[in-house]
Specification:
The protein is α/β, with parallel strands linked by helices. Helix content is 33%, strand content 24%. A 6-stranded mixed beta sheet has the order 1-2-3-4-5-6, with helices on both faces. Helix 1 packs parallel to helix 2. It is globular. It comes from Geofilum rubicundum JCM 15548.
């Protein structure tokens, strides 16, 4: 059974001990996920992932914008990938907004370069398909 382990105005995080999964879901009002407003939440994600060290992570960013600006690009570092690479899970499912194809492709390449050997990373538009992929591991 999934237990909530953190919630803010921006996101909610659950831990499913049976499935050994942390699920991070940004809420509709999350705005640009790269904005400074998310720094405290990113730190909470880092803390909980470090504590739990889950083999599987589902990060649902489907309700967020993801804008690379002159302040974040082209050499920006997505803080989630740093967290995932520091404590590499076996599988990461990232649910992204439908308008993210170009940025997701860029990030997928960057994440794959940083992912530890043995870590599977896959992007989804549908949270149910992401969950199914993680659950069948």
């Amino acid at each position: 059974m999934s237990q909530p382990i953190y919630e803010s105005d921006q996101l909610v995080m659950h831990h499913d001990k049976k499935l050994q999964t942390i699920q991070i879901t940004w809420k509709k009002e999350c705005g640009n996920i790269l904005d400074e407003i998310h720094a405290a939440d990113i730190e909470q994600i880092r803390t909980h992932i470090k504590e739990v060290a889950p083999p599987k992570i589902l990060a649902n960013m489907g309700n967020c914008q993801y804008l690379i600006t002159s302040e974040t690009g082209p050499g920006y570092e997505n803080p989630l990938y740093k967290i995932f690479s520091d404590l590499p899970p076996s599988r990461i499912a990232l649910v992204i907004p439908n308008n993210l194809f170009v940025n997701a492709s860029f990030d997928a390449t960057r994440a794959a370069e940083k992912a530890s050997p043995g870590t599977d990373l896959k992007y989804f538009y549908d949270p149910e398909k992401a969950w199914e992929w993680l659950s069948n591991y």
